[in-house]
DNA sequence: TTAGTATATAAGCACGGGCTTATATGTCTA
DNA sequence: TAGACATATAAGCCCGTGCTTATATACTAA
């Protein structure tokens, strides 16, 4: 299988790495490996404001790395990387959900929407 | 084999991804997969100034991702990632030297130091 | 309709990143 | 030693980023 890299591919790889190069976004994506998450859960887990959470998700969404699904007044996010092997490769380097929740001192997550834990 | 992630590991992973998330630095590291390179070669290959090249190399060096070897008036850089599997994993996603030189319209590189091409 | 909740957007601020030009430092050679 | 070459550092500029607070939008339920 031949590689057919061009300058646009490398630029996109670099841009994606830069996008993953933020601890909050990286942990969001690592959590999304396990299941979909509601915005309100992220707001509980991370020590930043709700607009900050929303802005991180918007950047991931505009790059097509996550997709949203509106469920009533809640919005659930899930990974959308079936066609993005380089994102998959990076996410293999990240810890799993229990480790993340433990390191953020957020075990267990309080139920704030209809997602069951 | 148990994972023992902590918050410092994730922060370092994110920081390293951010460092690789620049097209110039990513291509430098991709070139360094093949062999060591002289600073003057990078100056020829990339369309930025010599100080810009030097600053990129300093950042990679201060993170321990590359190491330098002074040879007379020239400085050769090489990879230093034996103990950094996450860097290795990302560099597996990058093109090889001929592809990079072709996409930058820099084939072949003019000899500007004692490294043989 | 009104209030409450969930999420997104707007605006502004502080900081860092990547580049430039100018200059300093180090090395080789005539 | 003087000059040329290779590299690093300094200083400054512009722009992007991550956060905040304030506000807008959307949905739900009384």
Automatic annotation (TrEMBL), chains A, B:
Keyword Cytoplasm: no
Keywords, alphabetical: DNA-binding, Transcription, Transcription regulation
InterPro entries membership: ArsR-like_HTH, HTH_ArsR_DNA-bd_dom, HTH_MetalResp_TranReg, WH-like_DNA-bd_sf, WH_DNA-bd_sf
Domain of life from the UniProt record: Bacteria
One Pfam family this sequence matches: HTH_5
Entries under CDD domains matching the protein: HTH_ARSR (cd00090)
Residue stretches making up the HTH arsR-type domain: 5-102
Coiled coil: none
PANTHER family in the cross-refs: ARSENICAL RESISTANCE OPERON REPRESSOR (PTHR33154:SF18), TRANSCRIPTIONAL REGULATOR, ARSR FAMILY (PTHR33154)
Protein's recorded name: Transcriptional regulator
The species this protein was found in: Paenibacillus helianthi
